[in-house]
Amino acid sequence: MSEHVEAFREWVETIREDVETLEAIIDSESIAQDARQFAAAALNYLVTRMDLVPDWEESIGVLDDVMVIRICIEFASQRGLDAGLTDAKHIVAVGRLANESERIDEFLGAELGADLRKHVARLVDTSVRGRGVLTILENPEERQKLYEEVADDLKRMPAAPFTDPESLTVKFKSYLQHKLSK
User: Fold this and answer.
1) Helix (H, G, I), strand (E, B) or coil at 122
2) Does the predicted TM-score (pTM) go above 0.90?
3) Residue 59, pLDDT above cutoff 90
4) Where do the domains of the chain lie?
5) Fewest CB atoms less than 10 Å from the CB: which of 19, 91, 98, 182?
6) Calpha distance 71→78 (Å, rounded)
7) How far apart are CA 147 and CA 63, in angstroms?
């Protein structure tokens, strides 16, 4: 467990860089729309108050967010994301995020990992604050509002000390099992 928790700590530390990469994907019209939709869904998920684990839960409240980002990038990569990337910094970040998504199934197990992936796949059809992914892609003003909301949420993000890996694991998996079983 401790190796997973150490990786999750690193994921939390890179969340601002990851958000910047998602924004670059959304802004790039040279990237396939199907891929851009998953980037928009990931950012929309970050600002929803109905996410799988409440953001106020120390450490685990941000854990679902960083996992959703990685799964969305994995899904976007399966839909032509890589073909439209041109900035070396974002190419490296996308490769890192897609590779890190494998750790999610190692941590959660096959069944819970599959349930999380199903949930994430549906995020492209979810509106947050009346804003769906197509609105984000097509409306620069709504996109900018989302970017500002994400930046504000990141400023308020609670600490993620990950001090007790075993307790964190049990609590996080319990939240997911409860929320994904509905």
Assistant:
1) helix
2) yes
3) no
4) 2-180
5) 182
6) 11
7) 20
